[in-house]
Write a structure and sequence with these properties.
Length: 118
């Protein structure tokens, strides 16, 4: 979902360095997960809000950029249209989480329809 010129820049960056040879789907999936873990690490011992969140914001920006970069490579290599995939997921999620059942609730869709017994 990054703009095409930025995706092209990422692909050019990788091609210049001949790194695509290391970017198997497995390696990209692992890297994506590791970078998401680095996002999580920033919140490991603290539920950061306000000033505590501001303190880590530069690192958070770096890590979400890493996540977006690996996700972009993975989607590009596997021919996944990320925008289309997200749009399809929204259709599914609207069906799974109708407003009248899901509003204000953190329950999983399987629990929403089970009522209060879940
Ligand atoms: Mg990182």
């Amino acid at each position: 979902m990054l703009p095409k010129d930025l995706v092209d820049e990422l692909m050019h960056f990788r091609a210049e360095r001949d790194w695509a040879q290391f970017h198997t789907p497995r390696n990209l999936a692992i890297s994506l997960s590791l970078e998401a873990g680095e996002v999580l690490e920033l919140f490991q011992w603290e539920d950061r809000r306000g000033a505590a969140l501001d303190k880590v914001m530069p690192q958070l920006r770096d890590e979400v950029a890493d996540v977006a970069t690996y996700l972009t490579y993975l989607c590009a290599d596997l021919g996944i249209d990320l925008e289309a995939a997200v749009r399809e997921k929204m259709v599914q999620n609207r069906r799974k989480y109708p407003v009248e059942l899901a509003k204000g609730s953190a329950k999983k869709y399987t629990e929403l329809r089970a009522g209060d017994e879940a």
